[in-house]
């Protein structure tokens, strides 16, 4: 094995910065700093993440905590735009098997629903969707999430480069300056054309007066 593996193993065995079997974290002062504390947590993934490896999250089938824990990409019923959006992408939802899938593949996407229940006592659409105009959708067409550069298209959040460009402060500032510059340039062009036309009119009048 690599010599660095043994060096790291010895360091871990002699370190006081370790999580106990019950998940209790190291006491204050037992770690050299936040980085070592993070490394200790990663070494204790098995007990801290309920037996699931890094890159997965633990969940129970239909919330039955008496059952065996499952490991997946996400927690079933969670939508990509919820507070738990770190699990799946903005236009995905979590299946009952704990896998991220496109929101358009949800069994009730676009299907009819009676109303939007704000208190969530009854959910007619599932995680990541709302009842919008009696249809189960992610969002209402034309709705914008400027901070994320998203626009709603056909009931689904979609990335929009235009929204990102418009709402980015630097781009917005440069856009305003460019607009002012072009507007001033346009005014100057119109002014010059007006002066040339005015001179031509004066000359025409003088010619007519001489002829008469």
For the largest beta-sheet, the strand count, sense and barrel status come to: 3 strands, antiparallel
Low-confidence stretches: 9-13
Strand content: 5-15%
Shape: flat
Cα-based radius of gyration, to the nearest Å: 32 Å
Summing up helix and strand content along with how strands pair, one would put the structural category as alpha+beta
Q: Give the N-terminus to C-terminus distance in angstroms.
A: 111 Å
Which series of helices and strands comes N to C?
HHHEEEEEEEEEHH
Query: Which strands sit side by side, in order, in the main sheet?
Result: 7-8-9
Mean pLDDT: 75
Fraction of residues in H or I helices: 25-40%
Verbal overview:
By secondary structure, the chain is of the alpha+beta class. Among the domains are: 48 residues, no CATH class; 65 residues, no CATH class. It contains five helices and nine strands, in the order H-H-H-E-E-E-E-E-E-E-E-E-H-H. A three-stranded antiparallel sheet has the order 7-8-9, with helices on one face. Strands 1-2 form a two-stranded antiparallel ribbon. A two-stranded antiparallel ribbon has the order 3-4. A hairpin with a 4-residue loop joins strand 7 and strand 8. The radius of gyration is 32 Å and the shape is flat. The termini are far apart.
């Amino acid at each position: 094995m690599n010599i660095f593996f043994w060096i790291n193993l010895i360091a871990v065995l002699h370190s006081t910065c370790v999580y106990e079997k019950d998940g209790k974290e190291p006491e204050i002062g037992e770690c050299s700093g936040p980085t070592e504390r993070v490394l200790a947590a990663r070494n204790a993934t098995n007990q801290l993440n309920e037996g699931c490896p890094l890159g997965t999250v633990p969940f129970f089938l239909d919330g039955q905590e008496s059952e065996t824990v499952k490991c997946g990409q996400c927690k079933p019923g969670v939508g990509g735009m919820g507070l738990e959006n770190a699990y799946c992408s903005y236009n995905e939802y979590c299946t009952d098997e704990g896998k991220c899938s496109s929101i358009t593949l949800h069994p009730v996407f676009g299907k009819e629903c009676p109303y939007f229940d704000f208190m969530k006592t009854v959910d007619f659409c599932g995680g990541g969707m709302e009842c919008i105009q009696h249809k189960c959708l992610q969002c209402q067409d034309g709705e914008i999430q400027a901070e994320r550069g998203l626009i709603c298209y056909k009931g689904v959040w979609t990335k929009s480069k235009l929204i990102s460009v418009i709402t980015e402060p630097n781009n917005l500032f440069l856009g305003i300056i460019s607009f002012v510059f072009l507007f001033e340039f346009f005014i100057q062009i119109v002014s010059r054309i007006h002066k040339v036309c005015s001179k031509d009119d004066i000359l025409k009048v003088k010619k007519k007066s001489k002829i008469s």
